[in-house]
Specification:
Length: about 500
C-alpha cells in the first residue's frame, strides 16, 4: 500500500510534542510491514537539520495557487532516521515557515492552510496517487476538503483520507478569508453547520471540524480519549460533530518506539537491564542520585517528566513534590512550561529547594537526562487534567518505574490500579486516582509509598507487570492498516 503522511511534525527533525513521535513511529511500523510511506512537511528554518540525511532539492518549480496569484515553492527530499520525507519551502514575502518557531503566530491558520494546498499541488504535479493520505491535527484539516472539492476533479480521485486528532484543545478556529486564500472561494457554502462552521462561533470556520467532516475515517490516540471527546467537555465543542460522524470514528492507542525507549538497549543509561536482571535498575538509581547530588539513602524516588501547564495538572505536580518530601521520598522533576510565569515559579522553587538533598528540579528538557530519570526512579507521577494518550506512563512501565496517574484518556487505558483494578493481579501495573484535586492525588501516592516501604516484594511484582506490557507500535500499526483497507473498499 502507498501511504502519504501530511503533517506539521515528524520526530526528531521537526518536533514540538507527541504528534511528532506518532508520525515517525507509525510510519516506521507501516514500512516494516511492507508498505511504501512518504511524509510531507513544511521546511521550517528551525528544524533539526542534523537529523535529516541527504537533504537535496527534489522539485524546483512548484507553483501553488494563493488568492489570485501563485507562490513559487521548492520541494526538498531527505531521510529522517530512515523515513522518506519531503519538505515544502515557499518563496514568499509571507515568510510562512522561516520564523524560528513551529507554532505561535497569529497567522498560523493561514500558514498551514497554504501548506495543505501546497502538499496536494506537489502530489498532483509529481503524479503521486497514494492509496491513503493520513493527516494529523488541525494543521492539515483542510487537506480532505481540498481533495474532495478541488483535487479529485483534477485527477486525484484515488486517495482515501484517514484523519487523526491528537489534541482537541487546538482546533484552528479562524476567519472565512482563509478559504479564499487557498481557492475554496464559496465561503457561504463552507460556513454551514454541516461543513466547516465552528460550533461556538457561527462567523468562524474550524479547520479541525473540516478534517472530521470531509475525511473517510477519523481516529484519535486512545479509546478512552475517544469517549471523552464525544461525551464530555474535553471535546471543546466538537462532541456533536463527532456524534454525527460516529460511524467513521474510533480511538487507537499510540505506541512507543522500543528501539529508543528500552532499558535493555538504552545507550543513555549506565546499567542496562530487563525483567530477568531487574536489580541492575538500582545501579541507575545510584547514578541518578550521583548526577543530581541527591543523598544515597533507602528511599523511593518519585519523578515527573513533561510539560508544566494546566493540562498536565501543574498544581498537582507541585503538591506531589512536597507530599513526597514530607513522606520519606525523594523527588526529581524534568520539564518546562510555555508559560513564562509557570517557568519562573518553578525556577524560584528550584532556588528555594537548592540545598535539599532529596530534591532536584531541572527546568528545561534534556533527552539524556530523561532516559536516566526513567531508569533511576521508582515511581512517576502523571496527574493530568486530560491526556489524549500519554507516552510518559508507557515509557515508565518499560523501565520498571511504577506510574501514578489520573484516570483520564490514554492514562486510564494503560494503567491498572494495584488495589482496585478489575484485572487479575499479574495485569495490574500502577496506581490510579480519579478526582483532579489534592485528595485524589494523595490517595494514590500514599498507597504507592506504603507498598514500596511495607511490601517491597509486591512492589517488585508491580514493576515487572508493567515491564511485560507490549505498548509498541505493533498493535496500533495493524489497527491502522485495518482502517486503511476498510476505507479503500
Amino acid at each position: 500500500m502507498f501511504i502519504t503522511m501530511i503533517t506539521s511534525e515528524c520526530a526528531p527533525a521537526a518536533k514540538v510534542g507527541g504528534l511528532a513521535d506518532v508520525v515517525y513511529g507509525l510510519s516506521r511500523e507501516l514500512e516494516i510491514r511492507g508498505n511504501d510511506v512518504e511524509i510531507i512537511l513544511p521546511k521550517y528554518d528551525c528544524m533539526r537539520y542534523d537529523h535529516i540525511y541527504g537533504l537535496q532539492e527534489a522539485f524546483r518549480d512548484l507553483h501553488v495557487p494563493y488568492y489570485d496569484q501563485w507562490v513559487h515553492c521548492s520541494v526538498f527530499f531527505g531521510f529522517v532516521h530512515g523515513r522518506k520525507c519531503f519538505f515544502i519551502e515557499p518563496h514568499s514575502d509571507k515568510n510562512f515557515f522561516n520564523r524560528g518557531i513551529y507554532y505561535g503566530h497569529q497567522d498560523d491558520p493561514g500558514r498551514f492552510a497554504f501548506f495543505c494546498r501546497a502538499a496536494l499541488e506537489f502530489m498532483l504535479k509529481t503524479n503521486k496517487h497514494p492509496d491513503i493520505i493520513h493527516c494529523h491535527d488541525w494543521q492539515t484539516g483542510l487537506v480532505p476538503v481540498l481533495l474532495f472539492d478541488i483535487y479529485k476533479y483534477l485527477g486525484m480521485s484515488h486517495p482515501r483520507v484517514c484523519y487523526t486528532l491528537h489534541n482537541l484543545k487546538h482546533q484552528g478556529v479562524t476567519g472565512e478569508f482563509i478559504l479564499n486564500e487557498v481557492g475554496l472561494n464559496h465561503a457561504g457554502y463552507y460556513l454551514n453547520n454541516d461543513r466547516l462552521q465552528d460550533n461556538f462561533n457561527p462567523f468562524a470556520i474550524n479547520l479541525m471540524k473540516g478534517g472530521i467532516v470531509y475525511s473517510n475515517f477519523v481516529t484519535t490516540v486512545s479509546p478512552g480519549y475517544a469517549g471523552e471527546i464525544m461525551h464530555t467537555d474535553q471535546g471543546f465543542g466538537l462532541g456533536h460533530t463527532l456524534h454525527v460522524h460516529s460511524n467513521k470514528f474510533g480511538g487507537i492507542l499510540n505506541g512507543v518506539d522500543y528501539n529508543v525507549w528500552n532499558p535493555e538497549i538504552d545507550s543513555y543509561i549506565p546499567h542496562k537491564y530487563g525483567i530477568g536482571n531487574i536489580d541492575a535498575k538500582y545501579g541507575n538509581k545510584e547514578a541518578l542520585r550521583h548526577k543530581l547530588l541527591l543523598r544515597q539513602e533507602l528511599k523511593p524516588i518519585i519523578a515527573y517528566i513533561g510539560r508544566l501547564d494546566h493540562q498536565k495538572g501543574v498544581h498537582l505536580i507541585r503538591h506531589a513534590l512536597f507530599y513526597a518530601l514530607e513522606h520519606g521520598c525523594q523527588f526529581v522533576l524534568l520539564g518546562s512550561s510555555p508559560d513564562h510565569e509557570i517557568n519562573n515559579y518553578f525556577r524560584h522553587l528550584k532556588h528555594h529547594l537548592n540545598d535539599n538533598p532529596d530534591c532536584h528540579l531541572e527546568i528545561g528538557y534534556n533527552e539524556e537526562m530523561a532516559h536516566l530519570i526513567y531508569a533511576g526512579s521508582d515511581m512517576i507521577v502523571v496527574p493530568s487534567l486530560f491526556e489524549p494518550c500519554g507516552l510518559t506512563q508507557i515509557i515508565a512501565m518499560k523501565y520498571g518505574t511504577v506510574p501514578i496517574v489520573r484516570a483520564t484518556g490514554g492514562l486510564g487505558d494503560t494503567v491498572f490500579d494495584a488495589d482496585f483494578a478489575h484485572k487479575p493481579y499479574h495485569e495490574r501495573n500502577g496506581y490510579v486516582f480519579h478526582h483532579f484535586n489534592y485528595e485524589g492525588l494523595e490517595s494514590a501516592v500514599h498507597r504507592a509509598i506504603g507498598m514500596w516501604y511495607s511490601y517491597p516484594q509486591y512492589f517488585r511484582e508491580l514493576m515487572k507487570n508493567g515491564m511485560r506490557y507490549d505498548y509498541s507500535w505493533n498493535h496500533p500499526g495493524q489497527h491502522y492498516l485495518n482502517i486503511y483497507e476498510y476505507i479503500r473498499e
